[in-house]
Known about the structure:
The structure holds two protein chains of two kinds.
Chain A: E1 3-7, E2 10-20, E3 26-36, H1 42-53, E4 60-66, E5 69-73
Antiparallel strand pairs in A: 1-5, 2-3, 2-4
Chain B: E1 2-12, E2 17-22, H1 31-44, E3 48-49, E4 52-66
Antiparallel strand pairs in B: 1-2, 1-4, 3-4
Amino acid sequence: MAVSAKLGPSKVKITFSNGVDEKGKEKRRSKSYSNIKPAANDQDIYDVATTLIGLQNSKALEVQRLDEKEIVEA
Amino acid sequence: MSTKRLEMIFKNEGGKTTKMSVDNAKEDISKEQVEAAMQTIIDKNVFETNSGVLTGIDSARIVTTDIDEIII
């Protein structure tokens, strides 16, 4: 059966360093922002993530873009 | 120990507001820095809520939470 895909709202997830644990392993903390337009380009999303990172204290480790796709019967 | 969370509240197309928060906010953050950041977020235009895109700055605030550990 043929299906078609509908792009869902995307998210951006920023992972921060949250200090180290007693074994010296880096602890991580992440924060997601939803309601990103699926059509938004990576550079603009990255720029927004950088802006948000600039407002807080922890070191940012990575910025991830999470895209979702809903598949429905055509 | 206390933690600070920055809450940025935007106006959106539908005439409602959208809140975006930043945990572990810098202590010495200025009004100008927050305004500039909010304007960048609006200009980049990557968010679209159920009430449409972000159109302007509504307000911003710092929420400080004091935590006293009793049993660790």
